[in-house]
From TrEMBL:
This is Protein angel. SUPFAM superfamilies: DNase I-like. One of its GO terms (molecular function) is 3'-5'-RNA exonuclease activity. It comes from Lucilia cuprina. InterPro entries: CCR4/nocturin_mRNA_transcr, Endo/exonu/phosph_ase_sf, Endo/exonuclease/phosphatase.
Amino acid sequence: MIRKWKPELFKFENGRAKGKHNYKLLSYNILAQDLLVEHLQLYYGIDNKMLRWQNRLKILKDEIGIIAPDIMCLQEMQYDHLKDLVNQIGIAKQNSRLEYVFKKKTGIRSDGCAIIYDKNKFKLIEEKNVEYYTDNVLTLNRENIAIMAKFQPLEDNSSTFVVATTHLLYNPRREDIRISQINKLIQEIIAFSHTPQSTHMKNRLPIILTGDFNFTPDTKAFELLTGLRKPKLRTQNSEDVQSVGDFFQLDAIDFGMANCASTYQDQWITVDYILTSKSNRDKKSIQINSKYKLPSTDQCWRCGKIPNKFVGSDHFSLAIQFSIV
């Protein structure tokens, strides 16, 4: 399967020029091996050797090497496979120094989320883990998590930005839980993205949010995530509540959602997204320069069940090229 980069047409808002420095970011649910083994029936008909971790690792390394990202947001990253994956990517990605932050799911699961970054290009300013599990809240009783990091490009120390990644509950019947998880995630991102100079909602760092959200674009959860529905936030004053709708919105990057797919769940669908904070007048923003197109559903059918010899996971990766402007 051949996937291509699609350049974006620039909209020079507020007199901004094209960004000087271009970076690549990847988001990928890489399929934890423990989960694959636990749910082996989902992969019936796939050649067994394509399901072995060492074979998948090589394919994942090759896939990621083709994209050559500077920042990688990984979901279903099994804790005891993380160093091996980072080493393999590091060998393929010459002239880089890879570091990572990782958060395992709460409870007994062995996987979690990781953000891997090139230390030759970014300085990690701060990191924060988010656990959705909350005592005595019925819709926040699952083990899913998120991880957030603030990065400063070494080429431009005035362009600090936030990267966050998450993996929400799968259960198709429990959108109520995913909505509660999104509400909590938005609260955490708002707090984490404030600039050091101010805690006002307007004064936020640019944000890139990625993940496997386990919902499609036609759901209430997606509307909540993209600001079409107002989140229910616990705040200390009414001014903050109003500010959420006015100043915190995320744009989902369109990789071809109408006829493309990121995974198979009884049918080929999209549940993985990269989102960016909306442009804020007179503030730094994320400029998307190019996006790595998802395969069409026709291409997915021709590709066959995944993982296979071309794709190392049961999801397809997402990737963007971006600048801070």
